[in-house]
Design goal:
Layout: E1 11-15, H1 19-32, E2 37-42, E3 53-56, E4 59-62, E5 68-69, H2 74-81, E6 88-89, E7 96-100, E8 103-106, E9 111-112, E10 115-116, H3 128-136, H4 152-160, H5 162-177, H6 186-189, H7 191-198, H8 204-215, E11 226-229, H9 234-244, E12 247-250, E13 254-260, E14 263-269, E15 274-279, E16 281-284, H10 288-295, H11 300-307, E17 311-322, H12 323-326, E18 334-337, E19 352-356, H13 358-361, E20 370-377, H14 384-387, H15 390-405, E21 413-424, H16 430-442, E22 447-449, H17 452-455, H18 459-486
Parallel strand pairs: 1-2, 1-16, 2-12, 7-18, 16-22
Antiparallel strand pairs: 3-4, 5-11, 6-11, 7-8, 9-10, 13-14, 14-15, 17-20, 17-21, 18-19, 19-20
The structure holds flavin-adenine dinucleotide.
Flavin-adenine dinucleotide binds next to helix 1, strand 2, strand 17, strand 21 and helix 18.
């Protein structure tokens, strides 16, 4: 294939068919119009990446991402733009809990990813000495240079004690990043707290207090923090693919990227098949290891920056419990589990890092027959979780559910989803690595990057990078077209 096309018709390849690649392809379509040829190269045999809805016990269950934050506009905006607003659903009032120190208690609500503005806000969860350590934090002298970074857990342990980290911050960060608080960087995972420190907050609690006071809604009434779609988030995937009107090429991962005289050549391949695609522009929306490989030849600096981002693997297990048994579950939306939390056998800690009682959390996910439960397992460095057989994972999840809730019913349906390398780890210095990557890419005409590797793993953050990357590519192609018209309409051929 070549990029020789009549003037005005441009070929773009989007690599990676997760939410970032799909949102980018869609935005490219809206910006470039129907004539542009958009090739979507997806290495696996399905679109969606970490978005995947399955049917379990007759009910839709998301076994990847299950909801998106509403306090950022991007995901909600896209849902509305695609005409999916009528499918939007909000969680029920059922509240989350946390299991740590052998007790299950309500998850404190007035914190920034576990960091409270005042020690009293975590009093229900920590021991009295643990609360006292947190209360002393503002009195510990803080050495903080604007712009610096630190590992969240390390900084917090020094200043506020281990309990706050082990019982709250680590389980919450484990839920979002499948990572450990001691290895994740403050600046990328709690950016507002880092900014408050840069601006002179004298302690971590003071910084959290500033952030919480800004994020509190003036109207006072509770408004939903998360939303999802009736029928599951695969509905967003399908709507994006249809509206983007792409030509998907499934099952052939991109293996290499090279500049050509007038654009880019992507080398695709499996063990049995190879191909190449020549295009005017390329938008890469793949996880960090694939970014590293694809950028190695044309942009070694960006490739080295991508290599600094490690990835964590995790698994999600869905159980369809008979309704009567499911109704015996606690009246909560779920339970986060602290790492190393003992099970009934003290030598064998609980395997699960979180249960979502989906049938309690989402009214639309209720049925008259079953109540769905979703368990997630695996933190960074625990790749062995993914090597366990499905049956073994299901047994471990059932044993943990019994230990935490007393519910021992045999499920009427189960599903196991594995997410190898599914979540990037934002280590200290992450934003410097991303800045180096983006600087190098910015110097390359007709190339852009998007995805969870860059500025946040949540769906709104991914969509924001997709939008920016699509605008960059569209701006470049529009410029090329304008130049082509000025020169008689032959550029790119
Ligand atoms: C289990 C789980 C639960 C989550 N829960 C939530 C949640 O509730 N809310 C939320 O906001 N976020 C959640 N997240 C995070 C969020 O889902 C992801 O960060 C986001 O979906 C990533 O999208 P992406 O398109 O950047 O990457 P991905 O979804 O990883 O997509 C990348 C795509 O690129 C493809 N690919 C890789 N290499 C190549 C190659 N060489 N050539 C071609 N294609 C390639 C992959 O097959 C994949 O389809 C969750 C993540 C996981 C794993």
């Amino acid at each position: 294939m070549s990029s020789a096309e009549p003037s005005g018709v441009r070929r773009v390849a989007v690599v990676g068919g997760g939410i970032s690649g799909l949102a980018a392809a869609y935005r490219l379509r809206t910006l470039l119009g129907p004539a542009a040829e958009i090739v979507l190269v997806e290495g696996s045999r399905r679109l969606g990446g970490a978005l995947r809805t399955v049917e379990l016990g007759g009910v839709a269950l998301d076994v990847g991402a299950e909801a998106f934050l509403l306090r950022r506009p991007e995901a909600l905006g896209l849902v509305e733009e695609l005409g999916l607003g009528a499918q939007l659903r909000y969680p029920t009032p059922a509240a989350p809990t946390v299991r740590s120190g052998g007790r299950t208690v309500a998850l404190p609500t007035r914190t920034v990813l576990g960091l409270p503005g005042a020690a009293a806000d975590v009093a229900g969860l920590l021991s009295a000495p643990g609360v006292a350590r947190v209360a002393e934090e503002p009195t510990v002298p803080l050495r903080w240079e604007p712009g610096q970074d630190a590992a969240v857990g390390v900084l917090l342990r020094e200043r506020a004690g281990d309990e706050l980290v082990d019982r709250l911050v680590d389980p919450l960060l484990g839920g979002v990043y499948a990572g450990r608080a001691d290895a994740l960087g403050l600046r990328a995972t709690l950016p507002a707290v880092a900014t408050a420190l840069d601006r002179g907050a004298g302690s971590l609690l003071a910084a959290a207090s500033t952030v919480l006071s800004v994020s509190r809604r003036p109207s006072g009434g509770p408004s939903p923090v998360f939303g999802t779609l009736h029928g599951g988030l695969s509905g967003l995937v399908d709507a994006l693919a249809a509206a983007a009107a792409v030509r998907p090429r499934l099952g052939l991962p991109a293996r290499g990227l090279a500049r050509t005289a007038d654009g880019w050549r992507l080398r695709l391949g499996s063990t049995t098949q190879t191909a190449h695609v020549d295009v005017d522009a390329v938008l890469l929306a793949v996880p960090a290891p694939a970014l590293r490989r694809l950028l190695a030849d044309p942009l070694p600096i960006a490739s080295a920056a991508a290599a600094r981002v490690e990835v964590a693997s995790c698994a999600v297990v869905g159980l369809a419990l008979p309704l009567a048994a499911g109704q015996a579950l606690p009246e909560a939306s779920g339970v986060l589990v602290a790492a190393g939390e003992p099970s009934k056998k003290p030598e064998k800690p609980l395997s699960v890092k979180a249960f979502t009682f989906s049938g309690r959390k989402w009214a639309h996910a209720r049925s008259e027959r079953v109540l769905l439960v979703r368990a997630s397992l695996g933190r960074h460095g625990e790749a062995r979780v993914l090597r366990r057989e499905d049956a073994e994972l299901i047994d471990a999840v059932r044993a943990d559910l019994a230990a935490l809730t007393g519910v021992t019913a045999v499920p009427v349906g189960t599903v196991v989803a594995r997410w190898g390398g599914g979540l990037p780890q934002y280590a200290p210095g992450h934003l410097d690595a991303v800045a180096a990557l983006e600087r190098d890419v910015a110097g390359s005409a007709g190339l852009a990057v998007a995805g969870a590797t860059l500025h946040g793993v949540g769906l709104p953050a991914c969509i924001a990078t997709a939008d920016a990357a699509a605008r960059r590519i569209a701006g470049y192609l529009t410029g090329v077209n304008a130049a082509a018209e000025a020169h008689g309409g032959t550029m790119g051929s």
